[in-house]
């Protein structure tokens, strides 16, 4: 995994400045080496984190003297593809997956993407045609941003800070994107916080030729349920995840795993143990008396004989970390679990370069605590909704208060509309429409569909509960979860891999009927049938905790309270942007955290 950069233009000369600064800004992503190729019409840059073919995998890399690539990611089936390409007459000078991408593109063009099993963001320059081809993986595990100068020069990079380091772009704040952040807590994955900088969305490719760009969606997480019994589903799922874990353990450096003590990461660790000749290194984190899953993680580590490492963060320096996160993420980002993710990545990087994670399982298999009620509301006629509320609440008296609040809110929203997609989007909002209008105080951005249904809703149909899953697969997973993990880990030069997002696993999950994901109060039904035998008894019986930072408690800390007062002052950047912030509206802790992270990001932008 690495950092990549590119500059493309019809009038680009070898002396054109910018690529060095762009690569330097990505040094944290690739601390092992860097490289630059200055070609006629294209400059490519690369900051390398050496994982495969440590001696021969340097980039930018060329193939047949015609194609040049800068690549971030891993192609887990590169050995099989290499064998196929050799049979087709291709010859290879390295063992790297990078060269396999080049040969695959030379052989199949953009159709090569359907053959790749991995995570990627890359740009390939065709020196003969003077054309660029860029692509990003299915869910956007690897980032790719771009912008174009008034003169028509195109710039690509793994992070926004690299584009800005070029000195060629002067971005303006996109007020509509700010409104989207206020609503969701993250910038939707089809756009950025700036008007002049775009992201190549997940599952898309892009071509550039003669100053003209074309962007095409080659894959979407389309749900297509098929009749399937639970035994058949569990057997197929177990087999595909096992293959994905085996593939993703391939590396020429040590590979470990994040182990939270939950079902997802524990499944990954258990399967890793079956494919490793030495103890797997596992890493866990706790927050003392606030949130501590380490006892569950220890049980898994003991059962599988891992080399287990854990750290108790207790009460970390949250104020200083929040200010640092504003710089790490380049855009406002409110998910409080970015702090523990950042810290455990720093901890793990002392021992390994690669970790496997459990990311994606909840979105694919129906694991979130609020899914049962969303599914129930989707299946019950509106006339029976009040009965369902009372019946569900009565069954949950013994559950945690936080779960009651979530379920109660979801049902209240369900009463407002019969459309599951609209209901679910409303449920996921941090600030509702009226609340955001109050914050803008009459200065709201021009009306714009900041969450276009054509992108975030499958075929515009009401799919029942699957509509909620589609939204999380298209928006929340790539916009929040994967951004969080990539930036937090790569800030320390740590590669993360997500076996549940292997394409073969994903396409099976998309075929599972909703009833094998969520039914009644049960979640991840097929998933648990497939993997429960791998878990210690205490883990098998526990509910979902989630890898989160206790932001409600953190807001009570003196250092965080001081930051909140600072960003909300009448003369602050946040108050100038949102004049209505001064009105005391009885905001929730989640809303306060949203505004705090936005305010800190605005301050960091002003200082940059």
Features:
Glutamine Phosphoribosylpyrophosphate, subunit 1, domain 1; 25 helices; alpha+beta; glutamine amidotransferase; about 600 residues; about 40% helix; 6-stranded antiparallel beta sheet; Rossmann fold; 20 strands; globular; 4 domains
How would you characterize the overall build of this protein?
The strands form four sheets. The chain has a six-stranded antiparallel β-sheet. It contains 25 helices and 20 strands. Helix content is 41%, strand content 16%. It has four domains: 2-169, Glutamine Phosphoribosylpyrophosphate, subunit 1, domain 1 (4-Layer Sandwich), CATH 3.60.20; 230-316 and 332-364 and 473-549, HUPs (Rossmann fold), CATH 3.40.50.620; 368-471, no CATH class; 553-607, no CATH class. The protein has 608 residues and is of the alpha+beta class. Mean pLDDT is 90; it is low at 382-400. L-glutamine binds at residue 97. One of its GO terms (cellular component) is cytosol.
List segments where confidence is low: pLDDT < 50 over at least 5 consecutive residues.
Answer: 382-400
CATH homology-level superfamily of the largest domain? HUPs
Task: Quote the beta fraction.
Answer: 15-25%
Shape: globular
**What helical percentage do the residues reach?**
40-55%
The strand order across the widest sheet is: 2-3-1-9-8-10
Structural class comes to: alpha+beta
**Do you know the CATH topology of the largest domain?**
Rossmann fold
Q: How many domains?
A: 4
Q: Which CATH C-level class of the largest domain is it? A: Alpha Beta
- How many distinct helices? 25
Q: Report the C-alpha radius of gyration, rounded.
A: 24 Å
Average the pLDDT over all residues and give the rounded result: 90
Query: Main β-sheet: number of strands, strand sense, barrel status?
Result: 6 strands, antiparallel
């Amino acid at each position: 995994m690495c950092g990549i950069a590119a500059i493309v233009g019809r009038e680009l000369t070898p002396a054109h400045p910018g690529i060095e600064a762009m690569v330097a800004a990505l040094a944290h992503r690739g601390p092992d080496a860097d490289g630059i190729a200055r070609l006629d019409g294209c400059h490519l840059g690369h900051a390398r984190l050496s994982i495969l073919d440590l001696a021969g995998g340097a980039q930018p890399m060329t193939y047949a003297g015609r194609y040049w690539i800068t690549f971030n990611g891993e192609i887990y089936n590169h050995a099989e593809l290499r064998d196929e390409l050799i049979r087709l007459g291709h010859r290879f000078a390295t063992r790297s997956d990078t060269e396999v991408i080049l040969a695959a593109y030379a052989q199949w063009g953009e159709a090569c993407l359907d053959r790749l099993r991995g995570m990627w963001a890359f740009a390939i320059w065709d020196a003969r045609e003077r054309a660029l081809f860029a692509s990003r993986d299915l869910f956007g595990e690897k980032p790719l941003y771009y912008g174009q100068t008034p003169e028509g020069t195109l710039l690509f990079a793994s992070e926004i800070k690299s584009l800005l380091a070029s000195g060629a772009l002067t971005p303006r704040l996109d007020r509509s994107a700010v409104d989207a952040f206020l609503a969701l807590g993250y910038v939707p994955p089809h756009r950025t916080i700036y008007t002049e900088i775009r992201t190549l969305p997940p599952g898309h490719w892009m071509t550039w030729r003669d100053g003209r760009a074309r962007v095409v969606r080659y894959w979407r997480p389309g749900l297509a349920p098929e009749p399937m019994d639970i035994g058949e589903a569990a057997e197929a799922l177990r087999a595909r995840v096992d293959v994905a874990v085996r593939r993703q353990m391939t590396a020429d450096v040590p590979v470990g795993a994040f182990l939270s003590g939950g079902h997802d990461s524990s499944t990954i660790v258990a399967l890793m143990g079956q494919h490793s000749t030495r103890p797997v290194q596992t890493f866990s984190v706790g927050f003392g008396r606030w949130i501590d899953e380490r006892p569950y993680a220890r049980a898994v580590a003991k059962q599988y004989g891992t080399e287990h490492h854990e750290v108790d963060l207790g009460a970390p320096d949250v104020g200083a970390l929040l200010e640092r996160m504003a710089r790490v993420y380049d855009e406002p980002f409110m998910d409080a679990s970015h702090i523990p993710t950042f810290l455990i990545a720093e901890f793990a990087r002392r021992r390994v370069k690669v970790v496997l994670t459990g990311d994606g399982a909840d979105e694919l298999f129906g694991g979130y605590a609020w899914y049962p009620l969303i599914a129930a509301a989707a299946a019950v006629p509106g006339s029976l909704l009040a009965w369902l509320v009372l019946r569900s609440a009565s069954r949950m008296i013994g559950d945690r208060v936080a779960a009651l609040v979530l379920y109660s809110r979801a049902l209240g929203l369900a009463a407002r509309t019969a459309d599951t997609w609209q209901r679910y989007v409303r449920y996921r909002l941090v600030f509702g429409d009226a609340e955001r209008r109050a914050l803008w105080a009459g200065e709201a951005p021009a009306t714009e569909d900041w969450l276009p249904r054509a992108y975030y809703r499958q075929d515009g149909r009401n799919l029942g509960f699957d509509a909620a899953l589609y939204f999380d697969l298209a928006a929340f997973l790539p916009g929040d979860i994967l951004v969080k993990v990539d930036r937090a880990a790569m800030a320390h030069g740590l590669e993360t891999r997500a076996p549940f997002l292997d394409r073969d696993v994903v396409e099976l999950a998309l075929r599972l009927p909703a009833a094998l994901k969520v039914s009644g109060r049960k979640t991840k039904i097929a998933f648990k049938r497939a993997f429960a035998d791998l878990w210690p008894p205490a883990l098998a019986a526990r509910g979902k905790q989630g890898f989160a930072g206790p932001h409600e408690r953190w807001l009570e800390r003196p250092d965080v309270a001081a930051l909140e007062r600072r960003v909300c002052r009448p003369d602050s950047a946040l108050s100038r942007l949102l004049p209505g912030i001064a009105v005391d509206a009885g905001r929730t802790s989640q809303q306060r955290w949203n505004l705090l992270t936005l305010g800190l990001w605005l301050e960091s932008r002003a200082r940059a």
